[in-house]
Design goal:
Acyl_CoA_acyltransferase, 5 helices, GNAT family N-acetyltransferase, Aminopeptidase, globular, alpha+beta
């Protein structure tokens, strides 16, 4: 398994991986109409968004790949809250790689042991437990989004 910085050419593979990862992580946790809309959006638009994210000079995206292709990714950037603290914007691993330590490796690659924050979907026990094991805790901030309630977790 290799973890490396994403390059713009990875956008073609990241877009469908992102769709699959959402289906695997969120089916039953968020309204099905949200997942259906995510899946039905034209793939070309998703690829273009990924190209932009990878090229964004203020953020970073790392990918995990094995012999079969991309199996996970993580993206970070300056916190959208203006605090100057790094925000973990996305961390996804294919279900086939759950429990193999890949999420841990991606997280450590992207943020190390430093301070960071993230938003997690309320009720996503698997993700919440993962982040708690990595020193994150809820700070009481919530956002009501179409996907459901998002709760902020921070690590100092």
């Amino acid at each position: 398994m290799t973890i490396r910085p994403a390059v713009v050419a990875d956008a073609e593979l990241l877009a469908p991986l992102h769709v699959q990862a959402w289906d695997e992580a969120y089916t039953g946790l968020m309204p099905q109409r949200i997942l259906d809309a995510h899946r039905s959006e034209p793939m070309g638009a998703k690829v273009e968004r990924w190209r932009g994210r990878i090229a964004w000079p203020d953020g970073s995206t790392w990918v995990a790949e094995d012999d079969g292709g991309l199996v996970g990714f993580v993206s970070t950037g300056p916190g959208r809250d203006g605090s100057g603290v790094l925000e973990l914007m996305a961390l996804y691993v294919r279900r086939s790689h759950y429990g193999a330590g890949l999420g841990h490796r991606l997280l450590e690659t992207a943020i190390g042991a430093g301070p960071a924050y993230l938003w997690v979907l309320d009720g996503n026990a698997r993700a919440i437990g993962f982040y708690e094991r990595h020193g994150f805790s809820f700070d009481g901030q919530v956002e009501d989004e179409p996907e459901g309630l998002h709760r902020r977790m921070v690590r100092g």
